[in-house]
Known about the structure:
2 copies of one chain form a homodimer. Chain A is 60% helix and 3% strand. Chain A is mainly alpha-helical. In chain A, a hairpin with a 5-residue loop joins strand 1 and strand 2 (36-37). The A-B interface holds A 54-57, 75-77, 79, 87, 90-91, 93-95, 97-98, 100-102, 104-105, 107-108, 110-118, 122, 126-127, 129-130 and B 54-57, 75-77, 79, 87, 90-91, 93-95, 97-98, 100-102, 104-105, 107-108, 110-118, 122, 125-127, 129-130. Chain B binds a DNA duplex through helix 2.
Amino acid sequence: MLIGELAAQTGTTTRALRYYEEQGLLESDRTPSGYRVYSPHAVTRVRNVRDLLASGFTIDNVKSFVRYLDTDLPEVFEYSPSCADGYGVGARRVAELGEKIASLTRMRDILVHRMPWLASPNDAAQKEAA
Amino acid sequence: MLIGELAAQTGTTTRALRYYEEQGLLESDRTPSGYRVYSPHAVTRVRNVRDLLASGFTIDNVKSFVRYLDTDLPEVFEYSPSCADGYGVGARRVAELGEKIASLTRMRDILVHRMPWLASPNDAAQKEAA
DNA sequence: CTAAGCATTGACCCATGCGTGAAGGTCAAC
DNA sequence: GTTGACCTTCACGCATGGGTCAATGCTTAG
């Protein structure tokens, strides 16, 4: 299949697919005239990439999972030592997200401290969510 | 005073001061040879800009406060209708920060949901912090 | 033949607050 | 006169995931 069809089947754009290929996450054959040709497996692969991106991983993170992208990913990953490297990536990413969250939360708290009259609704929602 | 001394007195860099000027947050006279010359008021101004940035405002936000930057800012802003526009900026910024925090938190929760074995320490700290 | 609708590579754009050179002019002191 | 410490204006770089042209080629139906 050509790139437009793959884009349609995976709900993304041709630009994104070329980007994934540029990042080493996707392969393609070429017609004599240079068009990218994909096997049906590419659909799974692209869905997995987008799944992981939507789960909060970065493109660089996803590169670490490249070995697992050709089969459907489970909803929840069991712990198995054969995937320890992937788990390290997950742990680091969670730590990064935690730091960013903490940093933004500090900023928001400083702001609310200096402007107390804009405090309550967000604060209540925040405490409830945690 | 010249830019280097202003940088030293405000604990920042010459690069940052030129950037603030480029953004319309700081003014300077020039010597015949083109050096920037600042009045002592500039020290207060720069400190206020950095104070607001450290409080979680963006450069664009600070531009809205440009009228108030020549006198010392209070630690906590009282509510007064004469500054309603500034308060709107504060409210919007707090909302933006809240959205970013919520978005990152959603991502982290999805990740932890898919990789449950990396859950606890961050989670506990998070709930405690809120 | 030609137009429509696909494809190609290349390259700039977004936001954020500066850091970090490069290449050069100015000023005070020795 | 020359060294060294200051100053000047560019202008690229960062991290993120593509968006959005531009200029051009391929393919197929009318």
